[in-house]
Amino acid sequence: MTALFLRDLRLGFRAGGGVMIGILFFMTVVAVIPFGVGPDLNLLSRIGPAILWVGALLASLLGLDRLFQVDRDDGSLDLLMMQETPLTLIVLIKCLAHWVSAVLPLVAASPLLSLFMNMNETAMGALALTLLAGSPAITFIGAAGAAVAVALPRGGLIVSILVLPLTIPVLIFGVSAVYAAVEDPAPFLPPFLALIALSLFFAVIGPLAAAFALRASAE
């Protein structure tokens, strides 16, 4: 499992500059918003958490279609499925490697990109913390979508269509937690704990669904 994790980690960092593409897409989404809404700094600070969460969500979807596609193309997916190790555990390891290589850099870049939205230090810290807690759920949901679309043409578009509706609760609780951290009367802990619960829930459901879809596509 360690060898599989390190292999997928290396592929994630090497494959087509995936890390930089995600960060550049995230930065582009955030950077164009001030041009659209105008130079109102108060407005930017109010909508900043929502815009950054949406940008991180969309950037996290980039490359999900390659989660299993590369292994299917070179035949290694069939070898992985024939191993004694449960396929669900293999999918979980691949999801963790994808999260570390493609999504964690987005979390690290979020405080810097928050400067575009005139967000204060509290909002920056809350944004990074909520992304750290909620972004794994997006990856686990995306794994199920990627497994469904692995044998289909234009899988990337299909993955986005399948995954986006399921990530709405993650987006809602993530944005709510950031706003709660900024607004004193609003409690931060309930939406943040809900975000963690979603990540833990999909950490179980996502790999199970992906493993089932992969076995179904192989038959």
What's this entry about, in short?
The chain is 82% helix and 0% strand. The chain has 219 residues and is mostly helical.
Features of this protein?
219 residues; single chain; 82% helix; mainly alpha; 10 helices
Can you give a write-up of this model?
The structure is a single chain. The chain is mostly helical and 219 residues long. The chain has helices spanning 2-14, 18-37, 41-61, 66-74, 76-82, 87-113, 121-149, 155-163, 168-182, 189-218. It has one domain (2-218). The protein has 10 helices and no strands. Helix 1 crosses helix 6, helix 2 (18-37) packs antiparallel against helix 3 (41-61) and helix 2 (18-37) packs across helix 6 (87-113).
Per-chain topology:
Blueprint: H1 2-14, H2 18-37, H3 41-61, H4 66-74, H5 76-82, H6 87-113, H7 121-149, H8 155-163, H9 168-182, H10 189-218
Helix pairs in contact: 1-6, 2-3, 2-6, 3-6, 3-7, 3-9, 6-7, 6-10, 7-8, 7-9, 7-10, 9-10
Q: Gyration radius, to the nearest Å?
A: 18 Å
What structural class is derived from the secondary structure elements? mainly alpha
Stretches with pLDDT under 50, minimum 5 residues: none
Count the E strands: 0
Query: What kind of sheet is the major sheet?
Result: none
How much β-strand is present in the residues? under 5%
Helix amount: over 70%
Distance linking N and C termini: 25 Å
